[in-house]
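Proteins fold reproducibly. Look at a concrete instance:
___
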Amino acid sequence: KRNEMGILIAITCDRGPRQRQSVKIGHGLARLVLLFRLRSVLDRRSDVKRCIQGLIVLPLLLVLALGARTDAGTTLQDLVRLKGHDRVVLQGLGLVVGLSGTGDTSKDSWVALKPYAMLLENLGDPVTSLNELRKGDSFALVYVSMDVPGVGAVDGDQLDVTVETIYNASSLKGGRLVFSPMRLPAPHATNPPIMAFATGSIVLEGDDLTSGRVRSGGQMIRDIKANPIAGNRVQLVLRDEYAGWPMASRLANIINGTFEFTGVDHLAAVEDAKSVHVLLPTADRTNPAPFLAALLSTPVDPTLIDVGARIVINERAGTIIVNEDVEIGPVAVAVDDLTFTTLSPSGIPMGADDAQTAGWVGLDARQDGGGTPTHLNTLLEALQRFNMPVWKQAALINELQRSGALHAEVINE
C-alpha cells in the first residue's frame, strides 16, 4: 500500500519469525525511501529559495550596472580620435544594369558603351561593334565609393557602398550594381591593388534619383590596418566640433589628473588647438592596448565641454540647428519686402499683424534696458511667422555673420 507521499508501507500479520524479519527489513527500506524523498523535497525548496533570491538580486545588479554606465557618462573617446585612425575611401568605376529606360543613352555618352560591351564579353555574349548597343538605355556607368572606418577593416568585412551616375542616366531606380573592383586613390600608380569588390541592389535615398546606396554591398579582400602609435606616444585629435585651445587644455589636464606615473610630470601636453599628445608609459610600450583602452575610457564632466556659440545649417535636409549661446548684436536686415531689426524704432507697433503692415519685425536687443544682445532663436521664430523658406533663413544667417552682428560660428553642410 502507498501513502500520500508514495512510500511503500508493509501490511503485516503474525505469521512467523521469518515473516516478521522480512517485515522489519521492509520497514527499514521504507525509512530509507522516506528519508530520500524528504531530502529531495528539501533540496527543491532550497532551489526555489535560491531562484527567488536570484530574481531579487538580478534587477539590483542591472540597476547597479546601468548606474555605473550613467556615472561614466561622456568619455574621452566621444571627443577625440587617435591620429592614424583616419577615414579611408575606396573608389572605382561600376556598371548598373536593370534600369527601365532611364540609363545612359549612347548618342550622348559612347564611353558608357565600352564597359557594357566588356561585361557582355565576360559573360560569354560578345558584341562585334558598339553600334549594336546604340539603342540601349537599361545600363549606366557609375562612380562607386566605399568609406572604410578609421579603425580599419579586414578581409571579409562588408560595408555600405555609394554609387553616383557619371553620364546622362536619369534614374538608378530598380538597378543593380555589377561586380566592381575597388581601389585606394592612387593618382600616380599605374595599377593599384584591388582592395575590395562591390555588388548588389541599389537603394535610393531622398529625392535624388541619380545616386544611391548598396547596403553591405562592398566586401574587403585585403586588410587595411591603422597604427596610432608613433615614437612611444599617441596623438589625440579633437573632433571639429570640440576643437579649440580651451578644450585641448582641459582634456590635457583631465588626463594628467587621472594618470600618474613615477618619473613623468605630465603624461599629456597640448600641441595645438586641435591635438594633444600622450606619452606611453614605459611599462605599457610592449603591450599598449590596456593603457589605450583606459585612456579613451577616461570620464569627462559634460559641464566642462564648451563648444561655443554655433549654428549648423543643412539646406538639403531643411534644418537649422542653433545652440542656446547664439546671440545677435544691434542690426537691421532687409529681406524681400520685410525689414528685421534688433533696434525698435519709436512709434511703430510691435505686434505680428502690425509688423506685416509696416513691413518690418522688431526684435529688441536691449530688453529691460540691459543692453544684452537678443538670441538668434527670436529672429528665427519671427521668420517662421512669415513662412520664410529655410534657404532664405540660411542666407540671412550667413549675411549676419559676415556683417559681424552674429556672434557665432556658422557651419554649412
